[in-house]
Amino acid sequence: MGSKRAFTVVIERGKDGWLVADVPELEACHTQAKSMDELLKRVKEVIELCLEEQRNSKRNPESSFVGVQVVEV
Does the structure show a pLDDT above 60 at 1? Predict the structure, then answer.
């Protein structure tokens, strides 16, 4: 296995109580779970799947993750 990479994970709780995780750096990389422990386990799995898909894809991403900001209005 190569060197480890760190990813930003945005976590929200839906109205139904489910935790939803999104990885902005990877296209269509998200998952959900009822508990934080299960969510973190699933997010690691989905990141690995997204990275594998990215390696197998012929196209280059046109955008890249920049950051997360909190904006008050």
Answer: no
